[in-house]
């Protein structure tokens, strides 16, 4: 089941996350259990509904922290994965504390978190997915790279694959 909810104001995030929780509860009562929730373009609200004063930034930070806290509560309670998409514009780990910096680039630009260090510090796992067209095989090849996770030995690992009619295939 795919459900789409568009919001235009930052204050609506908590309402939508409450609706997501109810949807998950209802799915567990039926035969379909929700296991994956995708949030697309969450950074848009923080970039475009902006009060550029210190009070405004503090309110945005408070809203962001509350949203992540709610997502973690839902994840823990119902065994659901939240995936946020298009929150990166450029990603930089050069100031990482443990020295496990991984740099990623897209369209020739370095990729950094568009929601800043608050988002960066709240997200336990981060992946970078890219795709490139292969003229020889006439297909799109994708690369899933671990950028940040609790297990430092996984940082920088890649999984390269293609999407075919048979599903995911390694390349």
Could you explain the architecture of this structure?
The protein is α+β, with helices and mostly antiparallel strands. The protein has a domain at 1-86: P-loop containing nucleotide triphosphate hydrolases (Rossmann fold), CATH 3.40.50. The chain has helices at 12-29, 42-48, 54-78, 116-122; strands spanning 36-40, 81-85, 88-91, 105-106, 109-110, 112-113, 126-134, 139-148, 158-164, 167-170. It has a 4-stranded antiparallel beta sheet, with no helix packed on it. Strands 1-2 form a two-stranded parallel sheet. α1 (12-29) packs parallel to α3 (54-78). The protein starts with 11 loop residues before the first helix and ends with a strand. Mean pLDDT is 76; it is low at 87-101.
């Amino acid at each position: 089941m795919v459900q789409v909810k568009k919001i235009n104001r930052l204050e609506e995030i908590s309402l939508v996350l409450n609706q997501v929780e109810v949807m998950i509860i209802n799915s567990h009562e039926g035969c379909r259990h929700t296991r994956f929730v995708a949030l697309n373009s969450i950074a848009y609200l923080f970039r475009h509904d902006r009060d550029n004063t210190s009070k405004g930034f503090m309110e945005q930070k408070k809203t962001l922290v509350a949203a992540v806290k709610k997502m973690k509560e839902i994840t823990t309670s119902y065994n659901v994965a939240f995936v946020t998409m298009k929150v990166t514009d450029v990603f930089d780990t050069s100031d990482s504390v443990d020295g496990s910096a991984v740099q990623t680039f897209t369209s020739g630009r370095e990729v950094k978190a568009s929601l800043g260090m608050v988002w960066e510090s709240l997200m336990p796992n981060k992946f970078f997915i890219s795709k490139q067209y292969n003229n020889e095989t006439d297909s799109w090849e994708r690369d899933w790279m671990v950028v940040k996770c609790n297990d430092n030995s996984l940082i920088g690992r890649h999984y390269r694959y293609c999407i075919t009619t048979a599903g995911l295939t390694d390349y």
